[in-house]
Amino acid sequence: MTITSTSEQVLVDTDAHVLTITLNRPEKLNSVTQSMSDALVAIIEEANADAEVRVIILTGSGQRSFCAGSDIASLDAYATPWEFRNRTDYCDALRASRKPIIAAINGYAFGGGLETSLTCDIRLASATASFAAPEIKLGWIGGGGMATFLAHSIGASNAAVMLMTGDPVDAQRALAWGLVSEVLEPDALLPRARELAATIASRPPIAAETAKSNLRAAFNMPQDEAIRYERDLQTVTFATEDAAEGRAAFAEKRPGVFRRR
Questions:
Q1: What is the mean pLDDT of the chain?
Q2: pLDDT at res. 73
Q3: Known catalytic residue: 245?
Q4: Is residue 56 helix, strand or coil?
Q5: What is the CATH number of domain 10-201?
Q6: Strand pairing partners for 70?
Q7: Can you tell me the distance from the alpha carbon of 36 to that of 22, in angstroms, rounded to the nearest whole number?
Q8: Domain residue extents for the chain
Q9: Which of 27, 79, 151, 225 is deepest in the core (most CB within 10 A)?
Q10: Is 70 exceeded by the pLDDT of residue 146?
Q11: Residue 61: helix, strand or coil by DSSP?
């Protein structure tokens, strides 16, 4: 498992099937430049192709910010709105991941940073984290899936509060609304993310990736169609060598040894 980064502002670390990506621009609250976005695209492409990567953790450097979204100062570099529309987007990069992603949200998740966290499959937050969709204060709205992900996560009314005021929501309210799964003390955040990642990485990886695809389908298909799709996915996973190993391990009362086959 050898994953590299093309940017010093996006760090990667691998350990026991877990890839940790750290946005490393703390002096700018880990706001994302185009070169950072390009690096994320390349990292996710490598991770998708690497069978050794089973889970990804995404976090930010420092204690203040997970990600403050796009670097506002860099947005004027686009020659036209159409060029801006067709830029390589970091949320699109993360959505392209077939591997489960855990967001360890260690501070501000604002704008594109909120969208980034919403793109992840599981969200854990530090008690010091806060969440906002502040684009409306600057005269525009989010474009990386903000509305659809918020509405699915916290309901239309709560999403409207965030989208139409731009005001921040603290970690405890985010937990109450269902925006995050857990709130932890700052020094416990990454250890908990690693613990959860290790648990997921111990599961049969084809089944874990399929569970991610199935969950995404559940949000995008009519219910009857989603159930049929789930049944097809179940059949595919049931036919894998890992599923046979899982059944054998269960019968023999031993841990399974899963090889992504």
A1: 92
A2: 64
A3: no
A4: strand
A5: 3.90.226.10
A6: 32
A7: 11
A8: 10-201, 205-252
A9: 151
A10: yes
A11: coil
Q: What's the rounded Cα separation, in Å, for the pair 230 and 222? A: 12
| Residue in 27, 46, 52, 115 annotated catalytic | 115
**Distance, CA of 132 to CA of 138 (rounded, Å):** 13
The identity of residue 50, as a single letter, is D
Question: Nearest to residue 133, comparing CAs of 125, 143, 119?
Answer: 143
Q: Which listed residue (8, 27, 46, 135) is catalytic?
A: 135
Burial of 110 per CB tally in 10 Å (0-12, 13-18, 19+): buried
Q: Choose which CATH entry (1.10.10, 3.30.70, 1.10.390, 1.10.12) describes domain 205-252.
A: 1.10.12
Answer yes or no: 135 catalytic: yes
The β-bridge relationship of strands 65-67 and 18-23 is unpaired
Encode pLDDT of 98-117 as tens digits.
Answer: 999 999 999 999 999 999 99
- The structure's pTM equals 0.92
